[in-house]
Amino acid sequence: MDNIVILTGAGISAESGLQTFRGADGLWEGHRVEDVATPEAFARDPELVQRFYDARRAQLAEAHPNLAHEALAYLDAEWDGDLLIVTQNVDDLHERAGAKRLLHMHGELKSALCLNCAERSAVEGDLLDGPPCPWCRAPELRPDIVWFGEMPHGLDRIEEALMRADLFVSIGTSGAVYPAAGFVQSARYRGAHCVELNLEPSQGSDFFHDSRNGPAGELVPAFVDELLSGEG
């Protein structure tokens, strides 16, 4: 078992105090998805959207990586084979824990995309006040987030990794949001062993060979220990 693909979702960061964007009522922090997470919403009311993501960025500044993030970073450092951590999360907790082989398929809170020149730049503070793009100086920065109706990042790279994967692991995901929800089917079809580590069974639990339920901070370090000891 040399090649591993790991998918992480909101559940892994919830234990760091970051609320999952979409609650049981279908709202994102009290807002309808259509109001804060689509290109049309940004065109209609950019101030509302910027304020929403500025608040998420401020919340992120108070959060810290947990044991699950740290365990995956340790696996990244110790695993000699291929490894790709694909995260649906827009936080930077994987990076702060030390993970390197990482792909943010839904964008990043601490990145801004310029609508004028299409360049990306790091951002720490608020975008509501319209800071200029460091590349072209136009005040046209938007959150570098993949909104509904937009194409996730790195799908070709993810598909290539899934084709070669011996092991696919899904951590803290609902199994409801595509295309990520379909990764387990792609990996299993190509012969990968598929493991789910989730607080409760996801919508796609039946596709996994092994489904373990509990807090990510407990399940992930134990699973990483299994892998590195050769027991997994």
Tell me what you see in this structure.
The structure is a single chain. The chain is an alpha/beta fold. 34% of the residues lie in helices and 19% in strands. The protein has nine helices and nine strands. It has helices at 10-14, 33-36, 39-44, 46-61, 67-78, 93-97, 155-164, 183-189, 216-229, and strands at residues 4-8, 83-87, 102-104, 107-114, 120-122, 141-145, 167-171, 193-198, 210-213. The strands form two sheets. The chain has a six-stranded parallel sheet, sandwiched between helices. A three-stranded antiparallel sheet has the order 5-4-6. Helix 8 (183-189) links the parallel strand 7 and strand 8 (193-198). Helix 5 (67-78) runs parallel beside helix 9 (216-229). The longest helix is centred in the N-terminal third of the chain and has 16 residues, at 46-61.
Quick rundown:
The chain is α/β, with parallel strands linked by helices and 232 residues long.
